[in-house]
Amino acid sequence: MDLERIDNLPTETIQGFRVRPGKPLPFGVSSVPGGLNFSVYTSAGTSCTLVLYSRSEEKPLAEIKVPDYYRIGDVYSIVVYDLDYEDVEYGFRIDGPFDPEQGHRFNQDNILMDPYARCLSGRDVWGVEPDWSNPYQYRSRIAFDDFDWEGDSPLEINDADLVIYELHVRSFTKSETSDVKFKGTYAGITEKIPYLKSLGVNAVELMPIFEFDEFENSRIHPDTGERLYNYWGYSTVAFFAPKAGFAASGKFGMQVDEFKQLVKELHKAGIEVILDVVFNHTAEGNELGPSISFKGLDNKIYYMLTPEGYYFNFSGTGNTLNCNNPVVRNLVLDCLRYWSAEYHIDGFRFDLASILGRDPWGAPLSNPPLLESLAFDPILSSCKLIAEAWDAGGLYQVGTFPAFGRWSEWNGKYRDTLRRFLKGDEGQVGEMAQRVQGSPDLYQWNGRSPATSINFVTCHDGFTLADLVSYNEKHNEANGEYNRDGGDDNHSWNCGAEGWTEDEWIRSLRLKQSMNAIGILMTSRGTPMLLMGDEFGRSQHGNNNAYCIDSPISWVDWSLLDSNQALFAFTQKIIDFRHKHPCLRVNQFDHPGSKHLPSCSFHGTTPWQVNWSNDSRQLAWLMSCNMDDNQDQLDAVYVATNTAHYATWFDLPGLPEEYCWHLRFNTGDINNPAQNSPSEFQDSGILVGERSIVVFSASLRET
Amino acid sequence: MALSIDVVQGDVHVTLVLSGDVDTKTAPDLLSQLTALELHALEQLRLNLAEVEFVSSAGLRAIVFAKQKMPHSSRLFLVSASPQIVDTITKTGLAQAVVIVDSEDEI
């Protein structure tokens, strides 16, 4: 019998729309039989009006004042029937006091975006300057759940087995050289999946894809006249909506599907998707910034305010989201659950995550409830949680970030140590030894594992790898701030000339230094992360802070893949080498090693003897475990590094009788760095060239 | 631009010949034509898009809706869709729900 439900009928008509009191949860908009349920929270607002539009129409279709008796607690909710799901766009007007000293900034004239909006229209195409007179820039829309996932689910690759590739959606394929059809978009990345697979990475970390405003703080370069943007997007407008301007289909409102398609296809290729998420602040800026959503909904709840009602600025960008307020905490949790469940996202990297551990007055908490909630959430239980464990307010928590056994960290100390070690600075051998074994000095004491450490030598923030070996100083003139922006502590070395040079010797040394960096990164314990294009020498021409540049300076130049084929091939082979050798991916500091060798041991020019002195520039490590598929078989990798400007002889450590060494990589032989020698290494040692590394693996002797 | 839809009943299939744009305003017409078919028992549906320049997200969702209502073993052909329409279908992941052909002769 086909019975019609009788509990979901309209109870009254307002302005010609059939309505009934809504359900307060879930927040945002949800479908109910015959209608849409709208729900919004405001603790200090005194009235709520639902503003409905037809798609792209300038004037509202209707403004429905939500009856006060539809409010439960601090939540207004209403079901409106007979709306065209595809066509309708909506926002809210909230009335209440305008009293900044008390923290309130209500203004009925503003139409506010739903903070739970899952899809936005109005700013659909990247870089099209908006009509600034339009009072409602970001219109909330309905997102649909009808995407065909074809049985997909998050991949749940072990943290220690990941090789992460950080990329910016637009930069990755915007260049003409990318040779894709949909340049600079989610669909463009989908087209590049075969490339990512051939490189061997198994996770991409996407720089912010939550809707942001590329025109926020946009300005014209005073000298060149070029427009500068909020290009990287570390300033969220909407936490639940993918950026429409990153979708080739954004102008059709299909960014949700296009992004899901990207995730599904990446998963099919065995590649996880990690999102770089920004919860520390929003695009609403300080008291001078726009009222997009939170400011007009409940300013005092969502932001950290001074006693005078001004915005605390721990993020360095105008405001600070009040993440440890229970309401905001739930918003963050709802957001991550949504991306995990609805988009099958595998992990999240939290920008300036230390802010998330501050109390509503800004003081660091020893037991931050938000970080704890995320760590123990049932829906996020398999998600990677990665912290950028510092903030712009001076809190630096690498090694002490409240981890609850779940959080891993961008290890800034790995980056800095590796950079100093590479260029031959004094006094680095001891710290480098800590870094290559997963930084036990930072993570072992509190029971964490090597994969807690996300190891990297470059990321979006700072020099690219090619620039790290080509510039001593930053060259940020293109940012229009007279080279004042960007960090000065780059630990970079130009190898003898600043910037581009024809000098073959310098070019060769730069190539070798790049291989050394990637080689050490891929033979360290912890989780390695590569920056897009570093595998073929992407340059930003010395710009170490290209946050505002939408030009070929930021875009990946794919022609370098041909001209720097040697670096690409080396990277590809050493990633493959990492995947094949479980001893490099051991995720226990107290791992017993193999029957014959300890898990991780350090060596110098003489086996088992390291020169730890200040002027030492030779360090070797031997990692070992049993093979995954054959517990009786030894897996061992020996890496010898010489950052001195002269070649140095290293005696090789001995192996059990039945094993022998094979030389796999030697960056000193720059024309043939990936040796992968099939025959047994005959000598008892090897001359490691100046500023070079060699990598051996153990194999059973052929009988 | 208005949308006209001709329904042609074949032996084992139904063909909808569309002419005009399938935009936000006209997509409901397509949806109601589709729901009027016995979708749950239809083994083959053909949408002839030769005379269609634009299909909005609402139109694409109507197509997905039809495929979801049809039996698992069924096939839904998009015939003579313009390159722009094929692009949108491909990049948004709807392509695996349908079979794209240049003409009905290929079926």
**Anisotropy-based shape of chain B:** globular
**Named CATH architecture of chain B:** 2-Layer Sandwich
Quaternary state of the chains: heterodimer
Measure the end-to-end span of chain A.
76 Å
What's the pLDDT, averaged over the residues of chain B?
92
Q: Which residues of chain A sit in consecutive blocks of at least 5 with pLDDT less than 50?
A: none
Instruction: Please report the total strand number of chain B as a whole number.
Output: 5
Please indicate the percent range of residues of chain B in DSSP E strands (runs of 2 or more). Answer: 25-35%
List the helices and strands and how they pair.
The complex is a heterodimer of chains A (703) and B (107).
Chain A: E1 12-14, E2 17-21, E3 28-32, E4 35-41, E5 47-54, E6 62-65, E7 71-72, E8 75-81, E9 88-95, E10 98-99, E11 104-105, E12 119-121, E13 139-141, E14 164-167, H1 169-173, H2 186-191, H3 193-199, E15 203-206, E16 210-212, E17 219-220, E18 227-228, E19 236-242, H4 255-268, E20 272-277, H5 294-302, H6 326-343, E21 347-350, H7 369-375, E22 384-387, E23 407-410, H8 412-422, H9 429-436, H10 440-443, E24 453-456, H11 465-468, H12 504-522, E25 527-531, H13 560-563, H14 565-580, E26 600-603, E27 618-627, E28 630-642, E29 648-651, E30 659-666, E31 685-688, E32 692-700
Parallel strand pairs in A: 14-15, 14-25, 15-20, 20-21, 21-22, 22-23, 23-24, 24-25
Antiparallel strand pairs in A: 1-2, 2-8, 3-4, 4-8, 5-6, 5-9, 7-8, 9-13, 10-11, 12-13, 16-19, 17-18, 26-27, 27-28, 28-32, 29-31, 30-32
Helix pairs in contact in A: 6-7, 8-9, 12-14
Chain B: E1 4-9, E2 14-19, H1 27-36, E3 44-51, H2 57-69, E4 75-79, H3 83-91, E5 99-101
Parallel strand pairs in B: 2-3, 3-4, 4-5
Antiparallel strand pairs in B: 1-2
Helix pairs in contact in B: 1-2
Question: Mind explaining what this structure looks like?
Answer:
The complex is a heterodimer of chains A (703) and B (107). Among the domains of chain A are: 12-141, Sandwich (Immunoglobulin-like); 588-700, Golgi alpha-mannosidase II (Immunoglobulin-like, Sandwich). In chain A, strands 14-15-20-21-22-23-24-25 form an eight-stranded parallel β-barrel. In chain A, strands 1, 2, 3, 4, 7 and 8 form a six-stranded antiparallel sheet that branches. In chain A, strands 6-5-9-13-12 form a five-stranded antiparallel sheet, with no helix packed on it. In chain A, a hairpin with a 2-residue loop joins strand 7 (71-72) and strand 8. In chain A, helix 12 (504-522) packs parallel to helix 14. Chain A is of the alpha+beta class. Helix content of chain A is 19%, strand content 23%. Chain B is an alpha/beta fold. Chain B has one domain (4-106): STAS domain (Transcription Regulator spoIIAA, 2-Layer Sandwich), CATH 3.30.750.24. Helices cover 30% and strands 26% of the residues of chain B. Chain B is built from three helices and five strands, in the order E-E-H-E-H-E-H-E. Chain B has helices spanning 27-36, 57-69, 83-91; strands at 4-9, 14-19, 44-51, 75-79, 99-101. In chain B, strands 1-2-3-4-5 form a five-stranded mixed sheet, with no helix packed on it. In chain B, strand 3, helix 2 (57-69) and strand 4 (75-79) form a beta-alpha-beta unit. In chain B, helix 1 (27-36) runs parallel beside helix 2. The termini of chain B are far apart. The mean pLDDT of chain B is 92.
